[in-house]
Amino acid sequence: MGKAALKSLAILFLVLALQPMGWSTAAAGEMLWKLALGDSLPQLRLELAEELAARLNAHSQGSCSVEIFTADLLGSEMELLNMVQNGSLELAVVNGQLLENWNPDFSVFNLPCVFKSPQQQLQILADPALTGELYQSTGGLGIEVLAALYSGAEVLCTVNTPLRSSADLAGLRLGTGSFEPLAALMRQQGAAPYGVTAAEALKKLQLDGATLPLEQYFSQAFYELAPHLSLSNHLLVPDYVVVNAAFLNSLDAETQELLRSQLGWFVTENLARVIRLEEQLTESAALEGVQLYDPGRSLLCAEPRACLNRSLTYESQRTLLTNLLGPVESEDLQGEENTAAPRPLYPEDPDTTSLLTP
User: Fold this and answer.
1) Which of 19, 150, 157, 257 is at 20 to 30 A from 185, Cα to Cα?
2) 278 near 294, Cβ under 8 Å?
3) pLDDT tens sequence across 256-312
4) Is residue 51 situated within a structural domain?
5) Minimal CA–CA distance to 127: which of 275, 325, 345?
6) Are strands 64-70 and 31-37 parallel, antiparallel or unpaired?
7) Using one digit for the tens of pLDDT, what is the confidence trace for 26-49?
């Protein structure tokens, strides 16, 4: 049976499985939830999701079961999001860029260089003062956000040119995908960004380099095409755990607390495992003949505020960005000088013990 047929059968199963008078297909008093995983870090996330399902089952004394689906079976992440909206799925993990279609303010947290570390990213995204209202804003459309997940770091790889500082970017042709804020940062440094994937940039167009997730650089052997690897310390767009709003509201307080507490474990364990994976990959770079450089945030993110501000459309977005990074200087979109001292939100030593939205 072909992949398309399997996908159709899986979707049909989900539709038929949804009970008209409730969310459970298990025996009376038991709950069966369906969780779909997006495209990021497929093997790592699948293992984590299986552990999450076991924990939910154990902590509910067997009354809660979770069935896990992957995007390669059900379709694109947008299709997963639509399934959560219409109730075919209770829960899904999707890329944050998709949520910009529902509320443009999500785009602020998706910008490159906004967060200085994975820990800070998750601390901010779990702060109800900044994200509580945003996460609930899509409830009227059938979806709410329960938690944010670290998806990894993005890196720059080049064919011939080592990238030790931002000056080395000048004149390089780089594949940056379709993410315009990243392309804008590249142009600010004198590079020529192309809206193509790393595979297209390096295999078809034979550009000078590309940006891509660190995990993908190694898992898909891009080091064979571009052996110079620079760690720029800008983070990928976070993933979000989304839930059908009607399903969430149908749960009693005890079950909601169970779900939220176990998702808290999921968030923190995902962070630890992704960071550990990235450390292992960079440590193995020399074995693959990779020339590794660590210019840090100075490569792209030394002065990102004005550039990122220009990529935003609405005043609410600019307000969020100001809350995160401090006021933009006089070259901002408004062209008005801002003399207020920046008030960075990030603490020097962020507390990462609680990374789940209340």
Assistant:
1) 150
2) no
3) 999 999 999 999 999 999 999 999 999 999 888 999 999 988 898 877 887 888 888
4) yes
5) 345
6) parallel
7) 454 689 999 999 999 999 999 999
